[in-house]
Amino acid sequence: MLDSLSASSWSLHHAAHLLNRAGFGGSPDEVQAFHAKGLETAVKSLIEGKDDDTLFPAPDWAKSRDMTETRTELVSLPEDQRKKIQQQLRMNGRDEMLALREWWMTRMRYTEWPLREKMALFWHGHFATSIEKVHETYWMYLQNQTFRTHGLGSFQGLVKWMTRDPAMIRWLDLQQSNLRHPNENFAREVMELFTLGEGHYTEKDIRESARAFTGYRFDPKTQQFAFAANQHDEGQKTFMSKTGNFDGDGIVDIIFEQPQCARFMAKKIWSFFAYENPPQDIVDILAEEFRAKNYNVGGFLSSIFQSSEFYSKTAYRTQIKSPAQWIVETSKTLETKIPDTLATENAMRQMGQVLFAPPNVKGWVGNRAWISTSTLFFRYNMAAYFVTERISKGQEMQGRIPIQLSMEKVAPAAIRNDEEALVSSLEFRLMNAPLPARERAAALIYAQRYHGDMTDARIRDLLLMMMSTPEFQLT
Amino acid sequence: MNEPTSRSLHTRREFLRTTLLGGAFSLTVPFFLEQTFMTMDALAADSAIQTTTGKNGTILILLQLAGGNDGLNTVIPYADDAYYRARPKIGLKPNQCLKLNSYCGLNPRLVGLKSLYDQGHMGLIQGVGYPNPNRSHFRSTEIWATGSDANDAEAQGWIGRYFDNCCKGSDPSVGISISREVPQTFAANEPRGISFMQPEQFRYKKESASDPTSVDSFYRVLQQPGGDAGGVGSNEGGSIGAISGSAPADGSSLDYLRRTALDAQVSSDRILEISRKQKSLVDYPKSQLANNFNLIGRLIAGGMPTRVYYLSQGGYDTHSGQQGTHDRLMGDLDGALCAFVEDLKKQGNLGRVVIMTFSEFGRRMEENASGGTDHGAAAPLFVLGGGVHPGLYGRYPSLTQLQDGDLVFNTDFRSLYATLLEKWLNVPSDKVLKRKFPLMPFLT
C-alpha cells in the first residue's frame, strides 16, 4: 500500500481535510475534537461510525404498496375521476421527492456517521438512477437505504444488491428483459459503468450476461425484488471465457475475478475522495490494496485515509465542492441549519445536482463540471442566504426558517478588534486553511477600516466577501 | 496582429478598466490592485485573439419545443385520408390548413411562418428522427441533446463538443441559453456557454451586503487570477507569467475557478449593459417565448460574440384535450418567431442568423381516447433565416407504413446538425458528431 502518514505529522489541517473529504466538514470545535483523536482513532471513528438510523426515521410514505391495486382501481373509474386521481398522484410524487431530498440533506448535515452518508452520495453517483424514469419514490428511498446499509461493505456484494434493486431494475429495463428477448441495457452498464469501464468486455459478453440477468424483476404487488424463474434463461452461457449455467450472481463473481475491476473502482473511489486522474503507479497500488481487502470498501478507505498521498499537495484543497457538499459543509462550518426545503431544492437545481435525478446513467461528471458562469454566480449569491438575515414576514408565513447564524459564535467580541485574529478565525472556519495572500490582505484592509466598529453587519459583509471567492468553492 | 484585433484589445482593456474603476471605489487603492490590472491586461490580450466569435460571425439559434410536438398537426397531410381516419376528433380540416403543396399544409395558427415561407426565409424538414426511436421524454431529449445513437449514453452535448473542439479559448458567452440550467446540448469537457433566465439575475448581488460598494469592489478584485503569487513582497512576474499563456488545460482547480469567475463577471457586465441599453426595433407579443426572443434580439443587436443561442418553449406533451393547447402553442410560436425575424431584418442581421426548431419526438399518428396524442417518433421541424434556401426537404413519412403506430423517419436529425456545423458554423462536423452524416441542401 501507499506510504502511511506518520502519526506525528497529523495536524489540525490534516484533520480538517479528512473531515471534509470523508464527510461534510465541521465547525472549528468539531475539527479540533477530531484532531485530538489522533490519526488512527479518527479514521477508525469514520469507518466504524455510529449508527444513527433512529435519528432519521423513514418518511411515512416510504413503504411498499400494491401497484396492481392502484392500477385496477384507476381503470375502473370514469375518465374525469381517473384524471383527477392521476394528477393527485403526480402531485404526491413531487411532494414525496421534495421530502426525500430534504430528509437526505438533513441527514448529511446532522449524521453521526458522515462517511456513511458521503459514501451513499458516491454510490448514488455511481449507480446513477433517476426518479425521472423510475417514477416510484419508495424505490428511490429503498435504493438510498441500500447504499447506506451496504456502502461501506463489500463492493461485490453491493453490485449483487443492485441486480435486485427495484429502482435499478426499472431504470435499466430489466423488468422487460425476458427469456426470448433479453434486454442488454443492464448487462452493458454493469460492465461499462459499474465495474470494468469501457473496452474491457466484448459485445458477446454483454449478450451472454444479459441472458443470465433474465428473470431479475420486481413484483408489482409487493414492490420488492422477485426472481421470475419462468423468465430466466437456464441455458449454458459463455462469459469471459467461462462456460456454465450462470445466473446474475455468477456473472458478477466472474467480473470480480478480473484485475481490471479493482483498477477501475479503486481509481474511481480515489478520485472521489483524494484527487482526479491519479498516475498509473498509484492506481496499481490502490487496486492491489482493494483486492487484498476483498473489495471491502471500508477497509480500503481506511488505507486511503491513512496514506500520506491522501494529504499531499495534489489532494489538499483541490476539489471543487459538489452542490450537496457546498450546502452541507457551509451549514456545518457556520453552525447553521440547512436552508429550508424549497431553498435547498432550488439551490441544488441551480447548482446542477438534483438528488435522485442525476442527468443520466453516467451520473454527475463532478469537479470542474459543477462550475459554469451561472452556477458560480449562484454559489456566490447563495452565500448571502447563509450570512444575511433577510426574511420578510411573508416568507416567514410561508414557513421559511431563518438560517440562525450566531454572530457571537462566528466572531466573538474578544477578537473583533484584533483584525489578524478575526481574519484568521474566519478563514479557518470557512476554509480550514490560510487564505491566499491577496484575499487575506483584502479581508484585513476591510477589517482595519472598521477598527473599533466591527458590527454584526460588517462581520456579515466580511463573511460574504470571503465566501464569494473562487477559494471558497474548494474543499 | 491585424488592425481589428488590436482595436478590440484596446476596447476590451478599456472596458475592464472602466468596469473596475467605474463606480465609487471608496477604499484607498490597495497594493494588490495594480498587480491585478497587469494581470487583467494579460488576460485581455489573451481573449482578443478570438476570431471565431467575432461580432460579424454567423449565429445559430436552437429552439426546443419541449414535451414532444405533434408534427402531424403542425404540418398537416390534409390530402391523406389516413390522417382523418386516425384523427376523427383532432384532425384539422383541409380548408383550415395553410397549404404548402397538394399534400400538406401548415397549422392555421402559423400564418406568419407561412408568409416567411413564401418570402423565402424558411425551410421545412419532414420526417426527422433517428433509428430505434425512444419514447421517453428524458431519454429522447438526451439523444437529441448529445447527438448520440439511441442505445448509447453520451454525457456531452453536440454543441458542447462544438465548443470543446472548435471554440477553444473563445469568449464564455460563445453560447447563451435562456434557461435556468445549462442545457445538456451545451454540456462539455470544459464547460463554455452561459445560461440565465433574466439578465438581472445573472450578476453578483451586492445588495445583499450592508455595505454593497465595498463588498462589490472586493468581489471584483478577488475574481482576478494570479492571487496566489500576489500579495506583500511577492514576485509580480510570477503571477503574470502564470496567466499570460493560453488556458492551462492542466491548471489547478483554483485557476479554473478564477477564470470562470472572471468570465462570469465580464459577461455579466456586458449582458446587463446591453439588456438595459438596447431597445427592440419591433413590438414583440406578450409571452415568455417572445420575451426570450426579444432578449436574444437585443443581445445580437448589442454585439454579443455569441455563436449559439438556446431557448425552449414548453407544454407540448399533449396527451389529452390537445386541440386548444396545441393551437395556443402554435400561435405563440408563430408570433414570437415572426417578431424575432422582423427584428433581425430591421437590424440588418437576418442574414447572419439561422434558427432551428426541434422536439424530442413527434406524436402517435392515432389520437387517443382523451382527445390527445401519445408519444411518437418522427416529426417535421423548421429552419429559418436569411441564408436558408426555402422549401420542403425530406419526405412526408407514409401514414400507412407505420412502425409501432408511429411515423418512420427518413432524415436523421444529425444530418441537420452536420449541415449546420459544416455550412453555417463552418467547422468539420465529424469532429463534433464523431462520424459523417449526409449534408442537406437547405444551406449553401
Short synopsis of the structure:
The complex is a heterodimer of chains A (475) and B (444). Chain A has 475 residues and is mainly α.
Mean pLDDT of chain B: 83
Please compute the radius of gyration of chain B using only Cα atoms: 24 Å
Uncertain runs of chain A with pLDDT below 50, 5 residues or more? none
Structural class of chain B: alpha/beta
The total strand number of chain B stands at 12
* Terminus-to-terminus distance of chain A: 25 Å
Summed up, the helix count of chain B is: 13
Main β sheet profile of chain B? 9 strands, mixed
Radius of gyration of chain A: 25 Å
Could you give the order of the helices and strands of chain B?
A: HHEEHEEHEHHEEHHHHEHEEEEHH
Biggest interchain interface, per-side counts: A-B, 54 and 59 residues
Give the mean pLDDT of chain A. Answer: 94
Widest beta sheet: strand line-up of chain A: 1-2
Which band does the percent of strand residues of chain B land in? 5-15%
Low-confidence stretches of chain B: 1-53, 226-250
Question: What helical percentage do the residues of chain B reach?
Answer: 25-40%
Question: What is the makeup of the main sheet of chain A?
Answer: 2 strands, antiparallel
By secondary-structure content and strand pairing, the structural class of chain A works out as mainly alpha
Proportion in helices of chain A: 55-70%
Account of the protein in words:
- The complex is a heterodimer of chains A (475) and B (444).
- In chain A, a hairpin with a 2-residue loop joins β3 and β4.
- In chain A, the strands form 2 sheets. In chain A, strands 1-2 form a two-stranded antiparallel sheet.
- Chain A is globular.
- The longest helix of chain A is centred in the first third of the chain and has 32 residues, at 79-110.
- Chain A is built from 25 helices and 4 strands.
- The mean pLDDT of chain A is 94.
- With 475 residues, chain A is mostly helical.
- By secondary structure, chain B is α/β, with parallel strands linked by helices.
- Chain B is 39% helix and 11% strand.
- Chain B has 13 helices and 12 strands.
- Chain B has helices at residues 3-21, 31-48, 81-86, 111-119, 137-146, 158-166, 212-222, 236-244, 253-277, 288-301, 322-347, 413-424, 429-433, and strands spanning 59-65, 75-76, 98-99, 105-106, 122-129, 175-177, 194-195, 308-313, 353-358, 379-385, 391-393, 411-412.
- In chain B, the strands form 2 sheets. In chain B, strands 1, 5, 6, 7, 8, 9, 10, 11 and 12 form a 9-stranded mixed β-sheet that branches. Chain B has a 3-stranded antiparallel β-sheet with strand order 2-4-3, with no helix packed on it.
- In chain B, β3 and β4 form a beta hairpin.
- In chain B, α1 (3-21) runs antiparallel to α2.
- The longest helix of chain B has 26 residues, at 322-347.
- Chain B is globular and about 70 Å long.
- The two termini of chain B are 31 Å apart.
